Amino acid sequence: MSEKELRSLKDDEYFLFYAMMVNSLRTDDVFSGIDKSLFLLKEYLHSENISIYKKTDGFYNHYVSDTSMNYLNKNITSIVNEVSTLLEKKEMYNIDLNLSETIKNMMLIHLSTVDNSYILSINNCSDSRMNSNFWYRLKDTMQVILKRTESYEKNMRAIGTDLLTGLDNRNSYELRMEKINETDTDLVYGLFDLFRLKYINDNFSHATGDIYIKEVANILNRYWPKQKIEIVDDEEQIIPTGHSIYRVGGDEFVLITTKEYLELVKMKASLATEETKMLDLGIGKSIPIGLNFGIVEHLPGEKMKETFMKADALMSEDKRKMYKQYKLERRK
Fold first, then answer.
1. For residue 297, what are the contacts with CB-CB under 8 A and spacing of at least 6?
2. What's the CA gap between 173 and 247, in Å, rounded?
3. 3 state SS of 265
């Protein structure tokens, strides 16, 4: 076989490999698709681990991996910052930067798409296969994969996000409810209702009502954020909190949390409604506004419909008391 034929065969091998990686995305679960493509890459390179890190708020966080690389999660940002000037130039990776042996065995490839930055981490790979042809094709292929993923995520956010507040919407809420079963414990469920939103809309415009909704969403999100930043081993990490706030209707919000005691949730809900009462809606006069809420535990063996009904009854009673407090008639 001639050298030209051998080169052609090698090119065909690359083409088939990349086609397999991209085709692995053909799944309902896009992250499983990425995992499959990374698994193919790991097998092809005889690598121990392949991971993708995504840059969020200045930090690279673990995005998806065919195998766990938790030992790198805590310091990937500092590593990337140290070798950032080399990420585009594979031939310079052998420069001694006084890195640990673990890091020296890890190849970092910088991948950028339109809106985000990513790092592809290849640990202990077979370097002989990483010629320049493979390098550029791999980078192009990973960009295709990530662009498809971003498109999927953007669509999912649009489907699951409330456009006015940026909170999760009713679609997200119903998906979450489907996953909660009678055996789930350590779960607190809260219903919130904006006091007199219809009155605001009818008398001061829907634009003012939207301000009311957005301000309350900000208050709830501040008390129960979806994630927070913590210092772990002298490194900042973004940590999920276990809290979820959903806007499920015009004036209704739902809290589902697995990380707080019932009495603490009730206390924070009371503080949230006191903040709401002090909001300035820009209407030039002070009128009674606030939050009504019902907070309950989801008990073992209890259907979520029962949990909802208990919270709804408490919220209705809270609303009745507020109407009585302000000597107002309830709208029909």
1. 187, 188, 189, 262, 307
2. 8
3. helix
> With contact defined as beta carbons under 8 Å apart, do 238 and 61 qualify?
yes
Class of domain 3-160: alpha beta
* Res. 92: pLDDT tops 50: no
**CATH fold of 170-325, please?**
Alpha-Beta Plaits (3.30.70)
Q: Report the 10 Å Cβ neighbour count for 130.
A: 17
As beta bridge partners, residue 109 has 120
Other Cβ atoms closer than 10 A to 43: 12
Helix, coil or strand: residue 140: helix
Using CA atoms, how far apart are residues 226 and 56, in angstroms rounded to an integer? 14
User: Please, which residues have CB within 8 angstroms of residue 38's CB and are 6 or more apart in sequence?
Assistant: 50, 51, 52, 64, 65, 66
pLDDT tens per residue, range 127-185: 555 666 777 788 888 888 888 888 877 777 788 899 899 999 999 999 888 888 766 77
The total of other beta-carbon atoms located within 10 Å of residue 124's CB is: 14
Q: Name the residue type at position 125.
A: C
**Mean pLDDT over residues 185-190, rounded?**
88
